[in-house]
Amino acid sequence: MNEIKLGLVEARFAEIIWSNEPMTTKELVSACQNELQWKRTTTYTVLKKLCEKGIFKTEDSVVTSIIKKDEFYSIQSEQFVEETFSGSLPAFIAAFTKRKNLSEKEKEEIKRMIEKF
Prior knowledge:
This protein is mainly α. It has six helices and three strands; from the N terminus they run αβααββααα. It has helices spanning 8-20, 25-36, 40-52, 69-85, 89-99, 104-116, and strands at 23-24, 56-59, 62-65. A three-stranded antiparallel β-sheet has the order 1-3-2. Helix 1 (8-20) packs across helix 2. The longest helix has 17 residues, at 69-85.
């Protein structure tokens, strides 16, 4: 799996696209000026970078996602577990629950997910 990471500012930029797609590059520039206080050139530079990463694409001045938001965050979660816990989901869950008590509802939901899987 290719590693796909976004910095904090890139993630905010991606959220703008995911929340408004499809959107024209003109609309994206305007949104980035309003929300991030970016100049047009900055918007185009970051858009090009994220298109090269295969997250977004631009065709006829319309920006859309190649990787949808949910899919992106699923990939991020997989990469985190792989890098931090050598791919072991049980090790991740053990570490996560060491500091956070799960509610009965959360425990039941996890049980249902495991049974379904």
